[in-house]
Each structure stands twice: as structure tokens, then as C-alpha cells.
Specification:
367 residues; 3 domains; mainly alpha; 46% helix; DNA polymerase, domain 1; 13 helices; hpI Integrase, Chain A
Length: 367
């Protein structure tokens, strides 16, 4: 409340002004027909109504409102607002990967007002993440935190983003997908006819290795996408899952839309079917359900002794391109990488592995 004489702000229900000493008049509130006391105030150009069954209750609501204006909303409230506005813009696959990180960040800062979260607190949160977390897992949590805080900045809730200049500490392993070994490639080729409940999982494994397709891209392929005359396959869609059911989406970048070269031996392995039938499906009529694919891949690996993922086969394709002296730019196009640095990183890694193998063989020979 303000002093009736000097107009300076003084504590609510003060009998005298602690600045000028003027006696304060007892404020009377309007009482509505429903019996509630009401005080309407203009705050930042907006009418804000405070109502309660007692005058003391109105004072309490005004005090709480003023306190809330100074501290701002809780972090959880801002996080939920960000979620409501941006979550549906993410792909279902991204949502699945982000959800655990979002819940963990929200829980950690559950008792904090967002305006009171400092760079130091964010850094402490990142530092306390378990060492068992991979570096990418930590980066995802920092990224979620950063997106929420950037949202708060754009909404004028905070002035500065406390996630700036935060880095992931050493000690978290950088997960790297290894390419299949020569023995594993031989196993994959020998089991091309492996079928699990009518799902051609052995053929799909060979296909992934020699085309570099992503798993979702392969599952979305239909016979109409094959150009047998020119030995090409058009990639322009991908399967994702809502619960267990397949749905089709476009690639997340223009680079994902591309034509892939089919090696002649692989083209001969691909069966022929009706244009709209799915190649890697038990029935062909619809894309495979997630559980059907997962069970097929698990059973395939168990029977063959392989310990690989579908994405590792894609990595194996990138290795084959490098060994075939395919230019990085051409490899980027075949792999559908939006950023050339992604392809270059794989090529650099493959070169390092090959150099190590050459060094070992040379040392064995010289010794």
C-alpha cells in the first residue's frame, strides 16, 4: 500500500507511515452481492481483481501477488508452458528421446523460481549427472534446459539465459557406433534368407548394409520406389511409431530425399511385388509394427550371434563408401546427411581405424 500523504510504498495494514509518520486511513473494500470483498488494482496497465471472504484475505492475496511479481513463476510452470507450445512441433521419434530428459530437468528444478536459477546452478546440475550417462545423454538434458530458458527469455520472464557457456564435463563417454567387422559382414550375407514370422529380416539387414538406409526409411519402402532399370531406389518417406502402430512421415531435411544406388547383386535379391506393397513387412499390405520388427531383429541377432543395431549397418555402409574411395560429397548425398561434417566425421574415424590396423600389421612384420 502507499502512504496517503507522501505516496511512498509502506507495508500493508500500516497504521502510520514509516517515512513521514502520517496516520493511515483504514482501507475499506467493496463488498459484492455474493458477500465477497473485492479490490481492483491497475497493474502494468491491466485490471487485476482480488477477492476473498474477508478483508484480511484480500490483503493476503495482494501480498502474494506482489511477491510473485518479484520472484516470477516457478521453473516447472515455464517448462510446462514451453511443452504446451513446442512439444507437438517435434517429431514423435524426437519426443520419445526428449521425454526422459524433460521430466528429469523438471524434477531437479521443481522447487526453484526461474528468475533465481543461475549459471552456477545449471552447471551444478550438469556436473551431478551420473558418470554412467553418455555424453549425448548429458547434452540432451542441457539442450532441453536451454530451450526452456530461451523460451523464458522470449516471453520476457527472464533477461538472461543461465544455460549459456555451460559445457559437459569430462568423464562422460562419447558413444561411437562401430562398423561391422569383416566376419560380421560375412555372417550378414550368409543369413540373407533369414525370416522371422514372414518378416524378411535377413534381407533387410543386407539391404541396410549395402544401401545405407535408415531403419525407418527401409521400413517405408514400397515396390513402386524401386527403379530396376536404372538400379535406383527413391527415398522420400520414413516410418515412425505411435505406440506400436506405424505411421509415415517425410524426411526431417531435404537431404533425406534422395536416390540410392542399388548394387547389382542386391537388386537380384529383392523380390518383386505389387507397387503399393511394402518390401520389408510380413504381409506387404501395411508397414511393419514396431513390436514385429523388434522381435524379428532380436531373434535374428540371437540366432546369428550378431550384436549389431540397424544404425551400425548404416555406419558400415559409410565405411564401405570410404574404402571404395567415394568422395565425401558423394557419400553425403548417398547417406542423406544434411551436414557434410557428419559424413566427414565418419570418414575421419574410419581413416583412423585403418591407420591403426596398418600400424599393427607393420609392427608385426618388422618385429
Amino acid at each position: 500500500m502507499k502512504c496517503v500523504k507522501c505516496k511512498k510504498k509502506i507495508p500493508e495494514k500500516s497504521k502510520f507511515c514509516n517515512f513521514c509518520g502520517a496516520k493511515q486511513k483504514k482501507e475499506k473494500f467493496y463488498r459484492r452481492k455474493d458477500g465477497l470483498y473485492e479490490k481492483i488494482m491497475m497493474i502494468e496497465g491491466k485490471r487485476v481483481a482480488f477477492r476473498s471472504k474477508t478483508e484480511e484475505g484480500v490483503f493476503e492475496k495482494i501480498r502474494n501477488y506482489e511477491e510473485r511479481r518479484s520472484t516470477g513463476p516457478m521453473f516447472v510452470e515455464v517448462a510446462e508452458a514451453w511443452y504446451d507450445e513446442h512439444w507437438e512441433t517435434l517429431s514423435p521419434t524426437t519426443q520419445k528421446g526428449y521425454k526422459p530428459a524433460f521430466e528429469e530437468v523438471k524434477e531437479y528444478f521443481a522447487d526453484d523460481y526461474i528468475r533465481q536459477i543461475s549459471h552456477k546452478q545449471v552447471n551444478q546440475y550438469i556436473k551431478q549427472l551420473p558418470k554412467s550417462y553418455a555424453r549425448k545423454t548429458c547434452l540432451t538434458r542441457l539442450m532441453i534446459m536451454n530451450m526452456i530458458c530461451k523460451f523464458a527469455v522470449t516471453e520476457d520472464i527472464i533477461n538472461d539465459n543461465p544455460c549459456q557457456y555451460i559445457t559437459i564435463p569430462k568423464g562422460h563417454k562419447q558413444t561411437k557406433r562401430r562398423a561391422p567387422t569383416s566376419d560380421e559382414i560375412m555372417t550378414i550375407k550368409m543369413n540373407v534368407g533369414f525370416v522371422h514370422r514372414d518378416f524378411p529380416i535377413g534381407l533387410m539387414a543386407v539391404f541396410l548394409l549395402y544401401t545405407g538406409c535408415r531403419k525407418g526409411e527401409a521400413l517405408a519402402l514400397q515396390y513402386k520406389d524401386i527403379d530396376r532399370e536404372n538400379a535406383r531406389i527413391k527415398i522420400y518417406k520414413s516410418v515412425y511409431y505411435i505406440s506400436n502402430n506405424p505411421a509415415i512421415k517425410e524426411p526431417k531435411s531435404e537431404a533425406g530425399i534422395r536416390e540410392i544406388i542399388i548394387p547389382s547383386f542386391l537388386l537380384n535379391l529383392l523380390p518383386k511385388g505389387k507397387p503399393n506393397e511394402f518390401i520389408f513387412s510380413a504381409t506387404g499390405a501395411v508397414a511393419a509394427k514396431q513390436s514385429h520388427y523388434d522381435y524379428a531383429w532380436e531373434f535374428y541377432c540371437k540366432q546369428t550371434g550378431l550384436t549389431l543395431t540397424a544404425h551400425q549397418l548404416r555406419h558400415g555402409y559409410a565405411t564401405l563408401l570410404h574404402e571404395a574411395d567415394i568422395d565425401v560429397k558423394d557419400a553425403q548425398e548417398l547417406l542423406g546427411h544434411a551436414d557434410a561434417s557428419t559424413t566427414q566425421n565418419i570418414y575421419t574415424e574410419v581413416s583412423a581405424v585403418r591407420k591403426t590396423a596398418v600400424q599393427r600389421r607393420l609392427n608385426e612384420y618388422l618385429n
